[in-house]
Amino acid sequence: MDDVPTVIFDFDSTLVACESLEAILRPRLAGRRDLVREIRAVTERGMSGDIPFAESLGRRLAIAQPTRADVLRFAREAHRSLTPGMAALVADLRRRRVGVSIVSGALREAIVPLARRLGVPARRVHGVRARWGRDGRFLGLVAGDPFVVGKAEGVAAVASRWSRPRIGVGDGATDLALLRKGRVDQFIAFTEHARRRAVLVPGVPEARDVAALRRILEELL
Fold this sequence. Notes:
By secondary structure, the chain is α/β, with parallel strands linked by helices.
């Protein structure tokens, strides 16, 4: 393992400007604004730390189960939602040999194609894994997957592969938990798309856009 820093990016509302599960389900929920609002409310409660991540994920999937085709459709188009400036930032980090990983509560299959566009190998992409039927029907989540429980629990299994210092970047309580549980050494609250009180805590720098994120990373690396 190279002796270089590692930057760990969240996916939803960080690398991309949307919440991926909402985007995946949007075509299926067309005309069902009540369900969209319900999913969004559950998402916000989970990201704010009001309910456990596993409960948030389970509730959203129960409201409207995605198909594998829904997920792959989003994955093909995810680059259109890429946060402006993120591609250049990730490219600059990689040129400097900084390790870049993606850790998300999103479905992993939805993340990998965009990660490859950014030059982040699939082995450095960590998310929730789903099981699918032959017809693409959602069958559930992979049993025993620690990322279903939460990011901090999932990262505990992979953090030993990351060089230090480890710097987390994200917008939600599940991201801040990586700092509080010692999975990362420093954390930056990225608030361009969502500004949540749960991550605006003393000692945590806030980046309201990618330019600010770049400046803070320069100070930390």
